[in-house]
Amino acid sequence: MSKYSSKWLKVSEPSPYVLHVELARAPVNAFSIEFWTAYGKLFDSLVEDGVDCRALVVSSAFPKIFTAGLDLNDANSLGGNGVDTSRDSARASFATRNEMIRFQRAIGAPERTPFPVIVAVHGPVIGLGVDMISVCDIRYAASNASFAIKEVDIGLAPDIGSLAFLPKITGNHSLIRELTYTARTFSAAEAEKIGFLSKVVEGGRDEVVKAALELAKFIATKSPVAVSGSKHLITHSRDHSVPENLAYTGAWNAAALLTKDISENLRATKQRDAARFAALKVPSKL
């Protein structure tokens, strides 16, 4: 997996079909343009190359923090993006919008993967960090984790994903508005209570990463066709009505039910053996 590691992203394979991505931009994982571009490219490359990943864990390489959010040096340059606003403000707006869409697409890359992405956070998760983890399939947090939707304190509305995901994840518009308008810090316990987290692990980085990797290892034993299809259909259900999702699921499974994974599951159950599933995609030559 060394091919996929880069300056600030460490990629390893701690167990078969499980990848571990560690954020490692010292000292606090602040996201510059180069960093978030590399982050999005990593996920897209894994998919394009057909890497047989069946679950992936994202964590921080640093013991005291997950991320401080957006690098403030980049935040200062968000307005103009090198365009002469005195000459044509419309063109400046187009340039800013294009950059924003590129930013959203990079941070949203985990949702485009056919495999589940589990994020294991600890310590402060600030601003962009909340956007990042909102996109992931499953969120685990150490008991020492804290969160803040911090953009209002910079002088802008959150624009990379928090406001799109959080109301749908938690179902609590009142509290999401409060947390956004005030930019106040909230604990892992409060985040779990409102449904933002699926699990709080007592301890810090080591404990939550261990729990997330164990979950990833278990998911990796399941049929890739079933897990990938489930991810796709759950995402579809979030953005469509019940009748629309049922109709879509019927069309999806009309093809997916032809998988050999079903017979392999039956064989493994009958023989009390571990199921052995083929990759979703034949990997390209690495």
UniProtKB/TrEMBL annotation:
Key words of the record: Fatty acid metabolism, Isomerase, Lipid metabolism
Any Gene Ontology biological process: fatty acid beta-oxidation
InterPro entries: ClpP/crotonase-like_dom_sf, Ech1-like, Enoyl-CoA_hydra/iso, Enoyl-CoA_hydra_C
GO-annotated cellular components: mitochondrion
CDD domains, per the entry: crotonase-like
Pfam family, one: ECH_1
KW Heme (keyword) present: no
Pathway: Lipid metabolism; fatty acid beta-oxidation
Superkingdom of the organism of origin: Eukaryota
GO molecular function, one term: delta(3,5)-delta(2,4)-dienoyl-CoA isomerase activity
Family affiliation: Belongs to the enoyl-CoA hydratase/isomerase family.
Protein name: Uncharacterized protein
Organism field: Laccaria amethystina LaAM-08-1
